[in-house]
């Protein structure tokens, strides 16, 4: 009953909770049937729930299309592509058949769909095809673009529209809807004869597919309890009952009943009490009522301003119930301070898609970096044929791309994700003539985007704010002194280029180095607010250096300064931009930990964006907040020119972070080709901050359960500088004889971590969503 007399709730003592339910779309898409027009009707339930089963574009995608896949002038092959009945994945044909999981891609992993010749591949190799027939599917992470040519313009448009509808519907789904969609897609695959009935053998296959090794006797008992017709087959309502029991969340039920009492519903005042216990100190009764109207599924309960268990689960699985503070997902920081007061998302060797020895260079690498919120990209500029400068990693086998093509990519993509300024970090190895060509391309292609003069005539040397520079492009490069010859000059040893270019000399680039010492007036004039200068000393000079001077340091030199002159380096970075880059010895484009550099206030901590790993996880976590705009305001102690802060000597602990790791839900299956391969998950929590705060602690592992493992273990951390700390949640598959396998992770700033019972929505190694995979934890922060 939803109305009547309400009995007073008796609070029960806190207890460890129980497991949960989640995992990413990891199932194997079946290859299409031999008849292209055949659509399997039993599997369309998922699309019906998405409201797209009757959509003409989606139906055309279900039938499949034969595209011409473009890779090069000579590699252009016809391939069949077909949307799967789950609406989550697309099956595609390969010349040599591989494992089923190698024949699909997931809609949720698509970054963008571009029409016409809007990719590097189609611009170079698709000229013979009319743009109306061409489309590019760009993916998140390291997966290469898919450049396709449809038989007709209408067929291309059907896929462009259809994929857009599927992506929009997927983005609009609640976590509960995603879970329902996910489990029914597996149910369809487990129904081997497609009769919409499930035998016990098919149920066992389903359990293995969703990463759960359930005891046969227990599983069969559950099966029999749901088999009301007593015919050893589950169908219709019986299947739904089985799934309901399978997806049960005992730990959420326990929390719900603790606040709702015997009435088994939450009134608005009871929900408010839960919110206050969660640390939502600004919550009001009106806010609790609004949550009921937003998340409650039962209309009768909603009318009486009551929340049922289902509504409570909807709320806790929503972004409002997540660990990341929802208020921090938009731009909420002061954006009117000087550039030096911000951490700025920065890329090293941006043009590379692989290693720095022989990997390909591509303008698409810049597009991907911008899509990840990067605001400082690097251009290694070298002499090219025909008077056109090129970009590549000099003296290696990496391929070359035209400088002008990169600047065109900057114009088209720099501000698609963030409106705040982009810095082009030029590593210049060109002679005067091609430097002038570079300046000409910057002017003609970028136009008004390019900053060519100071914004404030009263304080021309002061760094402007990100807000004042919205939509603008800055050039970081060498600046000629005012007393220069009109045709450029050779710099003195004192003014030599920074250490990054010094490393090139070790490769024997004597002639190139001589040319790089020459700065053309045209290019020099574009270094307005980011004048590259070698950092000679941290001792205060008689005349303070101008804020527009930017130093570039290798990770080794930056670490040396942190170690030997910690506070002086922090003070320097309070007024000047400092760029840090990986050692040249990292031939495979490996990364260093950016946290040590952030601790000292370095703004432009450049990483190889093409190389996944915990370092890029930290970078993504640092820039996850403030609207993912690529700019994060540094803590106060890193912005004051007179600060006494030294990251090596941070003082005593000030904050205690306690995390109870409760359960996980639907963790992805790592080996989709082996039905019996089920993860043994453990959770590790890492703190990345000043050296004294860095720590990692882990739970025990749970044997053979990636579906709803339970831990109920508490991990505690003492923090000295909480405003610099990042918290990284990692799930691994335990292995007694070899390193654990990565399952998923999520990283965020401690300052954006909400207290109370929260879900952590896990990400893949490439940063893609693993929805519906989550961790369920309880967080307590005490200062």
UniProtKB/TrEMBL annotation:
Feature: compositional bias, Acidic residues: 494-508
Cofactor: Ca(2+)
GO MF entry, a single one: phosphatidylinositol-4,5-bisphosphate phospholipase C activity
Keywords per UniProt: Calcium, Cytoplasm, Hydrolase, Lipid degradation, Lipid metabolism, Membrane, Metal-binding, Phosphoprotein, Repeat, Transducer
Chemical reaction(s) catalysed: a 1,2-diacyl-sn-glycero-3-phospho-(1D-myo-inositol-4,5-bisphosphate) + H2O = 1D-myo-inositol 1,4,5-trisphosphate + a 1,2-diacyl-sn-glycerol + H(+)
Segments of skewed composition (Basic and acidic residues): 479-493
Every PI-PLC Y-box domain range: 523-639
Record-listed E.C. numbers: 3.1.4.11
Primary localization: other
Assigned GO CC terms: cleavage furrow; cytoplasm
Major enzyme class: hydrolase
Boundaries of every C2 domain copy: 637-764
Membrane topology: Peripheral membrane protein
Region annotation Disordered: where it falls in the sequence: 1-41, 477-513
BP GO annotations: angiogenesis; intracellular signal transduction; labyrinthine layer blood vessel development; lipid catabolic process; regulation of cell population proliferation
UniProt-listed InterPro entries: C2_dom, C2_domain_sf, EF-hand-dom_pair, PH-like_dom_sf, PH_domain, PI-PLC_fam, PLC-delta3_EF-hand, PLC-like_Pdiesterase_TIM-brl
Main function: Hydrolyzes the phosphatidylinositol 4,5-bisphosphate (PIP2) to generate 2 second messenger molecules diacylglycerol (DAG) and inositol 1,4,5-trisphosphate (IP3). DAG mediates the activation of protein kinase C (PKC), while IP3 releases Ca(2+) from intracellular stores. Essential for trophoblast and placental development. May participate in cytokinesis by hydrolyzing PIP2 at the cleavage furrow. Regulates neurite outgrowth through the inhibition of RhoA/Rho kinase signaling.
Protein's UniProt name: Phosphoinositide phospholipase C
Source species of the chain: Bison bison bison
Lineage: Eukaryota, Metazoa, Chordata, Craniata, Vertebrata
Encoding gene (name): PLCD3
